[in-house]
Amino acid sequence: MSNWSSDQEVDEIVEEEVDSIVEEIQYNYTHPKIPPAPIIRRVHINRDRKEGHTRLWNDYFSDNPTYTNTMFRRRFRMNKPLFIRIVTTIENGFPYFRQRRDATGRLGLSALQKCPSAIHMIAYRCSADAVDEYL
Known about the structure:
By secondary structure, the protein is mainly α. The protein has a domain of 83 residues. The protein has five helices and no strands. The protein is rod-shaped and about 105 Å long. The mean pLDDT is 86.
């Protein structure tokens, strides 16, 4: 009638299955699953970094700049060739001042944008928020 050799074997199999289910329930009760932390995405604010570089270039460094050399000297407290030499030296010497892409692939600030801000912050002991004209 039955493929089972005895009721005792059936009882043992059922008992083992019940034990494994009870162990699993006990484990899940003592080790609750912690849900993963939600991913909080930051809102991207387009600050037009490229446009800032273009404005800075057109205002002071293009072939026909908006502002004269006198205005450049008044604003940056040095003449243009000295400033260009400082920017070039800093850009070649420190990787931070090189323009590179961020994790999302967008271009960062150029050396022409970073150097005036750094020089201004050092010279006048002010915060980065105070020097974001072309940033």
